Amino acid sequence: PPQPFAPTAPSSPSRQPPHAKYTGVTYVRSARKFQALLYHKGKQQYLGRFDSAAAAAWRYDVEARKVKGDGWRNLNFKDREQFEEEMRLEGERKDDIDDKLSNA
Q1: Quick check: helix, strand or coil at residue 93?
Q2: Phi and psi dihedrals of 45, rounded to 5?
Q3: Residue 52: C-alpha distances to residues 5, 30, 68, 73, 103 (Å)
Q4: How far apart are CA 74 and CA 61, in angstroms?
C-alpha cells in the first residue's frame, strides 16, 4: 500500500526569516526593509517600512493598541522598556530609538 505523506522536517533556524519572531512584520527583500502590517475587521492597514524588525514590531504594537485596545494579547512587546532593550540587542543607538519612536 502507498505510504502516507510524511511532512518535511522544519527548516533550520538559520533559514528562518529574521522577522519570524514578530507579529505583524514581514521582510521586503526588494527594499531590504521590514514592513509592518495590521489586519483588523478583514482589512489590511499598511504601517510603514523600517530598518529594523523591532522598530516595525513596535509600530505594529502602537497601532494594535489603538485599534484593538490595551488588552490585545498578540503584541510583540509588553512596554517601551522591553522594546528599547530589543533595539539595543539589535545594535541600535539610543538616538535611533528615539527617532523611530517619535515617528511611530
Answers
A1: coil
A2: -115, 120
A3: 38, 15, 24, 22, 14
A4: 9
- Distances 62 to 5, 67, 68, 72, 104 between C-alpha atoms, Å: 42, 9, 10, 11, 7
**What is the identity of the amino acid at 82?**
Q
Residue 46 in grid coordinates:
499598511
Residue 71 CA to residue 65 CA, distance in Å, equals: 8
Report how far residue 76's alpha carbon sits from residue 79's, in angstroms, rounded to the nearest whole number: 9
The pLDDT tens digits of the residues spanning 3-45 come to 555 444 444 444 445 556 899 999 999 999 999 999 988 999 9
CA distance linking residue 53 with residue 27, whole number of Å: 8
CB 26 within 8 Å of CB 57 = no
Query: pTM for the whole thing?
Result: 0.66
